[in-house]
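Researcher: Go.
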Amino acid sequence: MPNKTSIKSKRHQPPGFEILYEDRDVIVGSKEFNVLTVKAKWNREQTVHAALNRYVRKGNSRSHKCVFVVHRLDQHTSGVLIFAKSPQAQEFLKGDWKNTEKTYYAVVHGRLAEKKGTFSSYLAEDEDYVVASVQDPKKGKLARTAYEVAREANNLSMVKIRLLTGRKNQIRVHFAEAGHPVVGDAKYGRKSSHKRLALHAQSISFTHPFSKERITVESPLPQYMENLLAKETRTPRR
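Model: Structure:
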C-alpha cells in the first residue's frame, strides 16, 4: 500500500471536496453537488481543481505545486473524483482508464420493466451542448451503461450503475431516453419540484500509478437520495 497521508480535519478540507484518500501520487475525494470539477467560462476559481491547487500549496503564494485532472464529473453530479499529483501519475491513470471501475447510484422516475440490463447507443452533442443518441455510428461515440434496480418506492427507482464507457451526460441521456429520467434533471428530464440531481458517483477502483495495487474509494450516498425512497421501500423481484 502506498504511503497514505493522514486525512485532514473538515476545516482543513478544500471547499466543495472531501478528501477520502491521499498519498504522494494521488488525491481521491468526494465532490459536492453543484460544484465544478474544472473551470468554465462563467467560473474559473470556484472549482475542485482550483481548490486542490491551493490545498497542495498550503498557503504559499510562490509555490508552483499543482494537481492534474484525470477525469471529471458534471457540475450537478456528486461523488468520487481522482486527481494526480504529477504528470507521470496522470499519464498512467488516463492510459489505464479502461481498467478503472466506476459505480454510480441514481434515483430515476418510474419503475423499470427490466430490473437489470445495459443501455447501448451512439451519443453525439449538438451546437446547444445537448447530448442525444444518434443512428449513424460515424456521427457519435459508443456509450454503454449497465444498471440494476436496487430499490423502489414512491414511483421512483434507485438504480446501481456501472459505466462501461465514459461519455458526457451518458447516464442522464440513457435513462431519459428509456423514459426514466434522473430525478432533478432539468436538462434531460422533466419539470418537477426536485431541485437537485439525484446522481452520485459512489465508488471508484483503480490501479495505483506506481505501486500497481488496486485502490478502491467509496463515498456514501447523499441523504437527499436516501430520503427520496425513505417510505415504502422494497427490493424489486428479479
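Model: The longest helix spans residues 48-57.
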